């Protein structure tokens, strides 16, 4: 681990126990809000899916189910870091809690984004590609658990972010050419979701990396999820 | 003039609406009014039966097709469904 990162991680541990930069209470509240919003989206669209068996709705729901799972494991990992005073989740023993929870967090958060992407793109991709996304998510999770080099973690997530951004931009441009009305706001929201996905992952893999901006990160992430929840509730007639 | 191919949900809606308008209907007039080929109609009808949108009942030695509560629900929610799919580009 580069000395600068080690020092940052070490300095941040005790601060993490307090409220500055995000304490235990802040972490719980943050995760709770995201998990509840995600599950509300998942269950709020259940009736529509039961009536239609529409694939797009299915993938959209799966995305938010995986977001709920991912944020559950995120809060679990953060709890471990804070309560047991470790600098990285990999250092936590027994094995079952540390690396396995990291694996599950990385796998479910990757699948959340992939399902969201797939819900928009599946009609353009003629073959069923979701299996390959599962494979990719497993590889990402394994890399995160087995590699201790933070540059690999950050680099991998930035690469994924760029890939997803490219696909989203292409989808947006295509929708602009095909229809007069284009969903600019939707693509902006999804792009912001992807940005905060990356930032949340870096926040887990490099503890206290966003010490100063952590609260802003949390508030912005909550805002994005609540915007999506509001849109879902409005369109399903619940709001 | 090119005829735009109906989306799957639109076809389901059209079939259910025909049944609703007729209260109960036999399969042959339903096929005629649905504007589908026999094979495509059979596929959709099988799906509607499996999903319990429609039911078949014997009446006077003939089989009639009518809507279930779920079928009525689909028609009621159709615009909501379309709005949701369009909103999220699904």
Query: Which outline of chain B best applies?
Result: globular
Strand tally of chain A, please? 0
Quaternary state reads heterodimer
From N to C, what is the helix and strand string of chain A?
HHHHHHHHH
- Write down the Rg of chain B: 14 Å
* Total beta-strand segments of chain B: 3
Distance between the termini of chain A: 49 Å
Gross CATH architecture of chain A: Up-down Bundle
Q: In CATH terms, what is the fold-level topology of chain A?
A: Rhopdopsin 7-helix transmembrane proteins
Query: Structurally, how many domains make up the residues of chain A?
Result: 1
Shape of chain A: globular
The helix fraction of chain A, in percent, is over 70%
Indicate the CATH class of chain A.
Mainly Alpha
- H-E order of chain B: HEHHEEH
Report strand % of chain B. 15-25%
Walkthrough of the structure:
The complex is a heterodimer of chains A (239) and B (90). Chain A has 239 residues and is mainly alpha-helical. Chain A has one domain (3-236): Rhopdopsin 7-helix transmembrane proteins, CATH 1.20.1070. Helices cover 78% and strands 0% of the residues of chain A. Chain A has helices spanning 3-17, 24-44, 46-52, 55-83, 98-121, 130-146, 150-178, 184-205, 214-236. Chain A starts with a helix and ends with a helix. Chain B is an alpha+beta fold. Chain B is 61% helix and 16% strand. Chain B has helices at 8-22, 27-34, 38-50, 69-87; strands at 24-25, 54-59, 62-67. The longest helix of chain B has 19 residues, at 69-87. Chain B is globular. The A-B interface holds A 45, 47-48, 51-54, 56-57, 59-60, 119-120, 171, 175, 183, 186, 231-232, 235-237 and B 9, 51, 70, 73-74, 77, 80-81, 83-85, 87-90.
């Amino acid at each position: 681990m580069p000395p600068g990162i080690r020092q940052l991680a070490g300095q941040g541990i005790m601060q993490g126990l307090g409220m500055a930069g995000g304490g235990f209470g802040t972490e719980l509240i943050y995760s709770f809000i995201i998990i509840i919003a995600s599950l509300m989206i998942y269950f709020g669209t259940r009736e529509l899916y039961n009536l239609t068996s529409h694939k797009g709705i299915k993938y959209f729901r799966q995305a938010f189910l995986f977001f709920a799972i991912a944020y559950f494991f995120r809060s679990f990992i953060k709890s471990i870091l804070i309560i047991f005073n470790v600098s990285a989740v990999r250092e936590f023993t027994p094995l079952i809690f540390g690396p396995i929870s990291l694996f599950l967090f990385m796998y479910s958060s990757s699948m959340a984004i992939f399902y969201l992407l797939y819900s928009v793109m599946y009609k353009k991709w003629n073959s069923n590609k979701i299996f390959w996304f599962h494979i990719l998510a497993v590889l990402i999770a394994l890399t995160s658990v087995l590699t201790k080099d933070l540059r690999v973690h950050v680099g991998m997530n930035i690469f994924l972010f760029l890939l997803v951004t490219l696909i989203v931009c292409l989808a947006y441009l295509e929708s602009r050419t095909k229809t007069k009305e284009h969903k600019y706001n939707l693509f902006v929201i999804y792009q912001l979701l992807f940005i905060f996905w990356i930032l949340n992952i870096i926040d887990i893999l490099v503890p206290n990396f966003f010490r100063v901006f952590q609260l802003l990160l949390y508030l912005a992430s909550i805002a994005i999820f609540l915007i999506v929840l509001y849109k879902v509730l409005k369109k399903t007639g619940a709001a | 003039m090119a005829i735009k191919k109906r989306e799957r949900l639109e076809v389901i809606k059209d079939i259910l609406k025909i049944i609703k308008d007729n209260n109960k209907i036999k399969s042959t007039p339903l096929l005629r009014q649905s504007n589908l080929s026999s094979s495509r109609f059979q596929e959709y009808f099988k799906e509607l039966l499996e999903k319990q949108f429609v039911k078949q009942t014997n009446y006077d030695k003939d089989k009639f097709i009518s809507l279930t509560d779920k079928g009525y629900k689909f028609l009621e929610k159709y615009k909501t469904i379309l709005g949701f799919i369009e909103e999220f580009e699904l």
